[in-house]
Amino acid sequence: LKERPTDSEARSLAESVDYDALIKVSAALRDKGHGDLMSYSPKVFVPLTVLCRDVCHYCTFARSPREVMRAYLSIDEVCEIAESGKQAGCYEALFTLGDKPEQRYRVAREELKRLGCSSTVEYLLQASRTVFEQVGLLPHINAGILSIDQMAALREVSASQGIMLESTSERLCQKGGPHFGSPDKQPAVRLSNIEQAGMLAIPFTTGILIGIGESRAERIDSLLKIREINERYGHIQELIIQPFRAKPDTLMAEFPEPDTLDLLWTISVARILFGPDMNLQAPPNLSPGVEETLIQAGINDWGGVSPVTLDHVNPEAPWPRIAELRAKTYQSGKTL
Prior knowledge:
The chain is of the alpha/beta class. The protein contains eleven helices and eight strands. The chain has helices at residues 7-12, 19-34, 75-87, 106-115, 120-135, 148-155, 187-199, 216-233, 260-274, 291-297, 322-331; strands spanning 39-47, 92-96, 138-142, 160-162, 204-210, 236-243, 280-281, 301-305.
């Protein structure tokens, strides 16, 4: 493959089931861009607030006020998490939080007022700055939909930012879909946020969530939209292919998960669409036991892995130990 496929050529891949051929091309492209190196980021996960105004049908990260003691972690608690990560050799503090909880919950508004902040983002600015200046970890901000002014302010206290596109499928936002009732999951809104990051030259992580009811053609459309924005701004530092994992006590608890072959197909197509240089990730804790297969399909990065904190978005999926991940990477002919 000498050139990246055009949009029409990319869309034709939706019908391709020649998995071996796709994986072979994808792996060759990855090797051209990254050689034998696989990367990861030792991190801590800081869930600044688990309150959220959205109601995604597969999510267990978001809680209601009656399920939590306080709406927000205190700055001391944030620093304690960050310090534990620093002692364990971490460099990154991943701030993940619910989207605009103060617009839905009075308790969030009241707690922000006590904290002397007018919004969740203002408190996030304070927490990120404190972690960077007092602990020395590099904040990565995953705070949902932000205004361009908010993104610019957060750029001053973070190394990078991110938001998963998840999908461009409008169907998923309609009644009965997983994003119904979640205004921040509207594709146009998320695409606008990714573009705003490009305008501000913010190093940015995004990706797609597969297996929530979208078609393969819609996955390709999502990837092409990301590619189009990145071709204009060049700010996408990493692309994540994340498989849906069903969780108890959610509306999608019985929804079938994508199988490994479907994940491999999507990884391979993403690599072919984006070429050799893009950093392509599949979270290792969501596909335990098939790490070597994921490498074969064309990823070059494991993303953030924490030795001290849970994946609070997927708490049922423990992170692999770094030594174990290093060994499996080595068995695939790569170096972590």
